């Protein structure tokens, strides 16, 4: 299922896109990983990037951050072309990998100092940024302790804090809350929201946790098999309906048979799905006529998918992806 | 500057806090140098202060046996420990085992008589040498040759004395004739550039050998850090921070060059100051500091390049440690680290030239033993540099390919 451009109307902001990706393709050893990806990210927004394992999320972020090159397509970041101005693009972005990308035998301070120096920070400025990051990560009490003694939540906070050293305009967060307790997870999500709100940082956020994406994102994109199959504003996605589900009490065989003869109707044990298209009203009238003729009791009519997870599973199929 | 400073600081902290790396890079070679310098002292220093102890039974009543023992002892290589003349040969063998003697010499009753006898007699063996089977053939030959030589000389002197009257009447100087029977071989040590150096010692073999060996063990910390950086996504993070591949490799090269340099200083200091405290001889340093720096730098460059290549090929630290460890041991065994090259047969000495450790060792020996300078270590340094550059190029190619298939 490919979402038509008309669905983009619900995107979070009407501002100019900070990142624009057109017809992006990437393959490894002849296997397509990104296939004609088109995506735009609005300045100052948080884009939640969802996709099953191996869908192409990390590859997309790796290309955007300049870690790997693309095969074809066009990308502009803040109006800059990565083929020509990768250094400038990298200097305004920061990538927080899903792995704990720092040195466990160093302390939090030593890690921040090292990564800060690589950003060209030194002296007073480096100290200021380190203090800010320690504060953001709420690491004051253990900043000088070796990281390999940290809990999972503390490590995740440090991982994020390192990504904030250069005051990035764009923050790429690849599953930043994997393996942490509820408190640390909540803290990280709040921090991300705060950074976005106070500093207008544009954030691309990938996660397997739908509730996180729902909680922090302004816009949501779903990627599967290297293609963007959905991209829209969060509210628009959560309320959009491709079908209406009419839940009913008991249905007799005669009613089921009559409904199955109707076009654009999917019959289930607990109700029927009516597809929204040009003949939607006509179909709804026909369905309710059948219900009336056979005395079927209508319990509820549901518009939309209810939860993001439900939509995600519907879009990406329920089959396990680690068997691919 | 700030980047280099903090990169150096990071790498140093990582090594200092890695007990395995510290053990392999500093403790292991220090222990090896101490053990080998002391254990191999006898093998390397026969000419100087070390004696071969020989249990001795002198059953001969005549004066010739005493002259014989005195003549041998004047060689300053053997020390005779006299037992009672009536002791049975079986008891002598027991004492060899109980007192840990490798040799026993039995001078038979007929010794003086046999020396005086013209031409001697093959059926009358005046000397019996008892040897522990664990003694190497070379050491046996040293003692046997000394005994044979002195016995032959003593017989010749006795013969000249016996025909003294004839020689006097023929106007032949008896003393000159006896002196002519002394060894005709003059031994000289050959040093590069004709410069004189002190005699080679165990410490002068052990320090460069185990130093080169330990420098190549830099593969352990380098691969640990590098593979962890790759596995934990730190390498990805660094690449996203516009850190070039050149900077990444340089960021490994410079700190580990310094760590290798610290190894050189510490191991030399152990050779100079610590080994003598335990009864070994002190390491002498040669005359060329520039030559020492050149060979140390190129050995280090080669070792780091090999380590980076292994780290880029291996998928896990276990793989890197195994590949690196095995390669180092093979290079070490082949290259004259574990067994000095001069005791190897010819074809093995040729094979040794395949090992970069051998090139490094020869370079250090040029400096420490042969009083060589920059020009003397240039061939080895050049070979180490070229081989290192090839490995580094391969590493860069591999890393680029890996980056594209991540």
Task: Tag the structure with descriptive keywords.
heterodimer; A: 324 residues; alpha/beta; Rossmann fold; Alpha-Beta Plaits; 2 domains; six-stranded mixed sheet; four-stranded antiparallel sheet; disordered N terminus; B: 406 residues; mainly alpha; four-stranded mixed sheet; 18 helices; 65% helix; elongated
Spell out the blueprint of helices and strands.
The complex is a heterodimer of chains A (324) and B (406).
Chain A: E1 17-28, E2 31-42, E3 46-50, H1 57-64, E4 72-77, H2 82-92, E5 93-96, H3 108-118, H4 123-136, H5 152-162, E6 170-174, H6 182-199, E7 202-206, H7 210-216, E8 219-224, E9 227-233, H8 234-239, E10 243-248, H9 253-260, E11 265-268, E12 271-275, H10 280-294, E13 298-303, H11 308-316
Parallel strand pairs in A: 3-7, 3-8, 5-6, 6-7
Antiparallel strand pairs in A: 1-2, 1-4, 8-9, 10-12, 10-13, 11-12
Helix pairs in contact in A: 3-4, 5-6, 9-10
Chain B: H1 2-16, H2 19-39, H3 41-44, E1 52-58, H4 64-73, E2 78-83, H5 89-98, E3 103-107, H6 111-116, E4 127-131, H7 137-162, H8 164-169, H9 174-179, H10 202-216, H11 219-231, H12 234-240, H13 245-274, H14 289-313, H15 317-334, H16 346-352, H17 356-368, H18 374-404
Parallel strand pairs in B: 1-2, 1-3
Antiparallel strand pairs in B: 3-4
Give a description of the structure:
The complex is a heterodimer of chains A (324) and B (406). Chain A is α/β, with parallel strands linked by helices and 324 residues long. Chain A is built from eleven helices and 13 strands. Mean pLDDT of chain A is 86; it is low at 1-10. In chain B, 65% of the residues lie in helices and 6% in strands. Chain B has 18 helices and four strands. The model of chain B has no long low-confidence stretch (mean pLDDT 84). The chains are: A alpha/beta (324), B mainly alpha (406). Chains A and B meet through helix 2, strand 5 and helix 3 of A and helix 1 and helix 12 of B.
